[in-house]
Amino acid sequence: xxxxxxxxxxxxxxxxxxxxxxxxxxxxxxxxxxxxxxxxxxxxxxxxxxxxxxxxxxxxxxxxxxxxxxxxxxxxxxxxxxxxxxxxxxxxxxxxxxxxxxxxxxxxxxxxxxxxxxxxxxxxxxxxxxxxxxxxxxxxxxxxxxxxxxxxxxxxxxxxxxxxxxxxxxxxxxxxxxxxxxxxxxxxxxxxxxxxxxxxxxxxxxxxxxxxxxxxxxxxxxxxxxxxxxxxxxxxxxxxxxxxxxxxxxxxxxxxxxxxxxxxxxxxxxxxxxxxxxxxxxxxxxxxxxxxxxxxxxxxxxxxxxxxxxxxxxxxxxxxxxxxxxxxxxxxxxxxxxxxxxxxxxxxxxxxxxxxxxxxxxxxxxxxxxxxxxxxxxxxxxxxxxxxxxxxxxxxxxxxxxxxxxxxxxxxxxxxxxxxxxxxxxxxxxxxxxxxxxxxxxxxxxxxxxxxxxxxxxxxxxxxxxxxxxxxxxxxxxxxxxxxxxxxxxxxxxxxxxxxxxxxxxxxxxxxxxxxxxxxxxxxxxxxxxxxxxxxx
Length: 537
Description:
Elements: H1 45-54, E1 80-86, E2 89-95, E3 101-106, H2 117-128, H3 133-142, H4 150-181, E4 186-194, E5 203-210, E6 216-223, H5 234-249, E7 252-257, H6 261-268, E8 278-281, H7 283-298, H8 305-323, H9 327-340, E9 346-347, E10 350-351, H10 370-379, H11 382-386, H12 398-410, H13 419-436, E11 451-456, E12 461-466, H14 475-489, H15 518-524
Parallel strand pairs: 4-7, 7-8
Antiparallel strand pairs: 1-2, 2-3, 4-5, 5-6, 9-10, 11-12
Helix pairs in contact: 2-4, 2-14, 4-13, 4-14, 7-8, 7-10, 8-9, 12-13
């Protein structure tokens, strides 16, 4: 059996190369699992070159052919190892003495049409993690690492990420809506978040949360150009779109918002007056507005004592809203405040509901004084009392305020984003929040709950909060796979990016005033003597 010949065609092969394995081809991304979830590391070129010089290629000589004579080079080993960067990848080349490339190896697999997997995944994950290209690029520059170029990043983001994130969010949202539909009537909370303070906001994100599960059930982004460049009405427009959508999907019996006058008007005498949905107001905003009135009154002559009582009066408002089931019950408890602040705790028609007072911390307000009269005007203000029934459900939108702070992780107010990218970033914040909203409290080794401390500068008090377990972001792999599938099924990136039909930028520039040419501005722009003038040719 040892003398059996299996293939006579190999008898003439050079014995020095007969048993050499073939040179492998560079890895290709065929399916999403070839790149998502794979481990990666930072590698220094010197260490990589050390490895490359140690390795012996399964090639004895250079087989490159001259383009004109078609004669093979035939240069023998050893080959020189050369390393160069291409995007985020390191490319190793083994060169013969004549400069021909014997073999080329890439530290990353490639998609069809040659795109490096590392470049693609870095561009995607910068967006998915809420980071900013400019800052990550600067980090890579300091680390002397290759980076996906700016134009490629924005094309990858726009071509493969934005629409995929939107579809992923809609699928997850549909799952939540389906579960809520089976539970019957729901209570919703709504609140808006502007991308910048004052009257110069470009975007308004109106978010709705289901009151019991605390999950985000709808988000809509309003661009200033969609409201005739009037940022004042963006929150109202966001609420209208939200309310109309949710009424078609769920049995909403109550919706709680902040004390926004335009939204309240929609239910008091506007298009939702006969909607059958109860409009309630956030208790914290009601207390805040009351505090502002008392503080302003405390600035007047003879009313400084009201500032001392401000916090206690607001606490009493919270107590009244929590305790009273009807407007009449609220008035009975609320009116007792005018007696309590004067030191009178029992009167003809009632008494205070607190127990015996051990010690008096604040000075009593004299009955009939200027301060007491001013407080009476605030307490019995008819316009303010008219809105009290909306606070008696004792609702709070504090979780929505927390979510709006969470949006800053994905859409910082210090950076500007195009409308599609801004919407995608808010959806990423919603996915993150919904996935981790019910995290458990972290426990110490002895099984007790771990707490953290936070100091409030305004109240000058410390408070505790329970530390949650780390986020797992397990949904990100599914989102990455969806993005990679888009790349694998595409015909490559378009050379030019086209705007979507619903892109607000089709309405013109944000300012509404077309920008003049650079040459025109150079002629009219004059320095005021502070700093240097613009350089001119």
